[in-house]
Structure formats: structure tokens, C-alpha cells
Amino acid sequence: MTEGQKRNYEAFYQKWCIPYTESPIGFKSLFQNDNPVIIEIGFGMGTATAQIAEDNPDKNYLGIEVFKAGVGKLLGEIEEKKLNNLRIIEHDAIEVLENMINDECVDGFHIFFPDPWQKKRNHKRRLVRRPRTDLLSKKLKKGGYIYMVTDWENYAEDAFEQLSETPNLKSKYEKFAPSQSWRPTTKFEKKGLKKEHVINELIFEKD
User: Fold this and answer.
1) Which positions does UniProt annotate for substrate binding (predicted)?
2) Which of 10, 93, 153, 181 lies 20 to 30 A from 112 at CA?
3) What is the spatial distance between Cα 107 and Cα 102, in angstroms, rounded to a whole number?
4) Is 40 known as a binding-site position?
């Protein structure tokens, strides 16, 4: 962590972060409104997360991340921009979903450039893979969505197959989605483009 990230973490953790517990949280009491709730899993340094929240004040955002430096960085963004529609949980995402998020209460999941776990023997660790996708589907409201972006073609193909096999989920498009203009470019995306990787986007909806 940089000194600035440490200062942000110490100064603003209590204000904008939700401690991990094994009890479900109520979004209405957390955000003080009934606006749609979008969960971003693994927000990295959080620059895109903050921008999306700032651009969409009529939606609530919950970012989940284990990378302390990223939490510190995003806390600074939230405080500077007064993003009352954004909160953070610093913990393992699967445990958060299993224990803190009620079923059928999430309007959308954002998963931008997750760890591709490139070696075949590690593919089972991928986030967008069953049974983890079953858990995501379980937490979504009807009509809710999963929006994933990756620069690893093998992961994109595998994720499309895994999501297609997940109960109650259906791709919004015949295969990969067109680039969504509202999504800011992330640091990982820029790195991928420099390596001439193809950016693939997937959008699945719960029926």
C-alpha cells in the first residue's frame, strides 16, 4: 500500500466499509433507499467502480475485494467524490455471497477482468465457473444480469459455456456482447490491449 492508500484505509474504513459477518445485510437500511443494487466482484484499484457509481447515482453499488491497496484507493475516491451509493466489503467474495447476501436481491453482478487461472489444472478455481455461477444466479433477482469482461479468449469461451449451463441464466446475445459504452476502460484492459489481446464481454440475464 502507498502512504496515501494507508491514510485512506485508516481514515475512511469505518465510514464506507461493511465488516464481514455471517448475517445477511439489508440493502435498504444500508443505502437508505430502494434503488437497484449492483455487486462488483474484484474491483482491483476501483477506478472504474467509482466512475460507474458517480455516473449512476440512481443505483447502489457494493464492491467486494481482498486486495487491501485497492480498498484504500477506492476509499479515497468515495470520500473525494462523496459517493453515497457505493460501499465496500473487504473479504472473500464467495463467503460474502453465501453468508451476507440474501437470495434474489441483487440486480446485477459486474466481473471485470477476473483472474484467468491460465493453467488447465487451475481452471476449476475460476470465479465464472459452476458451481460458483449457480450461486450468482441464486442471488440475482429475476431479470437481473451478470456482466463479465475478460481479455483471455479461453476464459471467455469457458465462461460462456459455464453460464449457459447455469440454471435460469440466458445470454442476452447469441454469443459475446458488444462493447458497453458506459463501462470505463480499466488498467487490466489497457494491459491486455497492449499485448494485443481481444476483449470479450458476456451478458447473461436471469429468467
Assistant:
1) 119, 151, 186-189
2) 10
3) 12
4) yes
Q: Supply the pLDDT for residue 185.
A: 87
Confirm or deny that 92 is annotated as ligand binding.
yes
Give me the amino acid identity at 72: G
> Does residue 112 carry a pLDDT above 90?
yes
CA-CA distance, 27 to 35, in Å (whole number)? 9
Asked if omega into 57 is within 30° of 0 (cis), the reply is no
Do 137 and 197 fall within a single domain?
A: yes
Residue 180 has pLDDT above 80, yes or no: yes
Active-site pick, 58, 107, 115, 134: 115
187 is in an annotated binding site: yes
Active site residue 158: no
Q: Which amino acid is at 66?
A: V
Whether residue 194 is predicted with pLDDT greater than 90 in this model: the reply is no
Query: Which neighbouring-strand residues pair with 131?
Result: none
Q: Give the range of the structural domain holding residue 84, as residue numbers without chain letter.
A: 35-101
Do strands 86-89 and 37-41 pair parallel, antiparallel, or not at all (unpaired)?
Answer: unpaired
Q: Are residues 93 and 157 in the same domain?
A: no
Q: What is the distance between the alpha carbons of residues 104 and 97, in angstroms, rounded to a whole number?
A: 11
Do 181 and 137 share a structural domain?
A: yes
